[in-house]
Amino acid sequence: MNTRRHLLFSVTLGAAALALVAHILLIFLATPMAQPQAGGLAQKIFYFHVPAAYAMYLCGAACFFGSAAYLASPSEGKNAVARGGAEAAVLFGVMMLISGMLWAKKAWGVYWVWDPRLTTLLLSVVIYIAVVVLRAFTGDGDAERKFAAAFGVLGTVNLPIIHYAVQKWGGNHPTVIGKGGGGLAPAMSRTLGFGFIAMTLVAIVLLWLRTRLALQVASLARVEEEVLALDPTDEDAAE
Amino acid sequence: MRDAQTQPNADTRTPESRSTEFVAVTGGGETSSAEVLLTSAYALMWIATFVFIFLTWKKQNQIAARLGELDQKLRAAQPKA
Questions:
Q1: What is the pLDDT of residue A54?
Q2: Which of B38, B64, B70 sits opposite A45 (nearest CB)?
Q3: Quick one: CA dihedral A38, A44, A45, A51, positive or negative?
Q4: How far is CA A27 from CA A12, A24, A86, A230, in A?
Q5: pLDDT on residue B21
Q6: Which of B52, B66, B72 is the best substitution to test chain A (most A C-beta atoms within 10 A)?
Q7: In chain A, which residues have their Cβ closer than 8 Å to the Cβ of B37?
Q8: Where are chain B's structural domains?
Q9: What's the pTM value of the predicted model, to 2 decimals?
Q10: How much is the ipTM here?
């Protein structure tokens, strides 16, 4: 079972690496530049910015399901998924914020505006950072886990608000794809579609890594308790 | 060449005009270069990803080492029990 899982992980990792390389080649060799109002050459940030946002939603969804399931019936696996989802969501949120700010500098002339979508998105990233910090600094007891899980649910409830903020409240953030959007040139759509596939694979790999890490941390705590029970004088295990 | 296009004629400028009017120019330099912004965005995104993977790898190594250490202690303690 472990060998099969290891093989599946290796295949996913290889596919993610190949997809990323192919995505970068597609962006720079096969995708035309956009109009100057969209940022011209800087618009190529879009092909990572949007898939990063989508990957944050994916990891946020994993955090939500892990957290909600943990609140319903606690288990190590559910806690690990909730924890891994929040950590990966922070990474993709940071990627999206960095890329968005640099693109905005070119397209809007400023790094940041308090636009509804940007503000709700920042709020979500801050909530996921709060979940990660809470888990890192408050111990790993059941109460702390439940509190972090409640935060994880809250962070994901905000995600649909981000998505519809631009349609409901307007703002500077463009709506190119989806309802009300003007669409993309076919070559641009192809590259963006490929970006979604590549980022899905990266999100799966990172979620897998962080979930496995969270499970290992839990195993370590359990073994340390066993050692302490056998030898209460063991100072290393008691730490 | 660009200086000649962007700078108004020095002889016609007065201290008053410097603060009360804007002069249209052609070919003025941009405040932010698309190349620099694009490169920075990609570099920062990949640095963030690699730091994340490195920290995960480092933590996993620490846990594996600690688990091995504790496993040895458990094995050593079992005959006593």
A1: 93
A2: B38
A3: positive
A4: 22, 5, 29, 59
A5: 56
A6: B52
A7: 42, 45, 102-103, 105-106
A8: 2-77
A9: 0.82
A10: 0.81
Q: Are the Cβ atoms of A98 and B73 closer than 8 angstroms?
A: no
Containing B63, the helix (H) or strand (E) segment is helix B34-77
HEC assignment per residue over chain A: CHHHHHHHHHHHHHHHHHHHHHHHHHHHHHCCCCCHHHCHHHHHHHHHHHHHHHHHHHHHHHHHHHHHHHHHCCCHHHHHHHHHHHHHHHHHHHHHHHHHHHHHHHHCCCCCCCCHHHHHHHHHHHHHHHHHHHHHHCCCCHHHHHHHHHHHHHHHHHHHHHHHHHHHHCCCCCCCCCCCCCCCCHHHHHHHHHHHHHHHHHHHHHHHHHHHHHHHHHHHHHHHHHHHHHCCCCHHHHC
Q: What is the mean pLDDT of residues A165-173?
A: 71
Of A95, A102, A230, the CB nearest to B74: A230
The residue count of chain A comes to 239
Q: How far is A86 from chain B (nearest CA, A)?
A: 13
Residue type at A88 in one-letter notation: A
The pLDDT tens digits of the residues spanning A86-107 come to 999 999 999 999 999 998 888 8
CA proximity to A56, closest of A100, A107, A22? A100
Nearest CA in chain B to A237: B70
Amino acid at A228: L
Residue in B closest to A101 by C-alpha: B41
Helix (H, G, I), strand (E, B) or coil at B67: helix
Q: For residue A221, give the chain B residue with the closest CA.
A: B67
Contact between A3 and A199 (Cβ < 8 Å): no
What confidence tens digit (pLDDT) does each residue in A61-70 have? 999 999 999 9
CB contact under 8 A, B67 and A219: yes
Nearest CB partner across the interface for A106, out of B34, B69, B70: B34
Averaged pLDDT score across all residues of chain A: 87
Coil, helix or strand at residue B29: coil
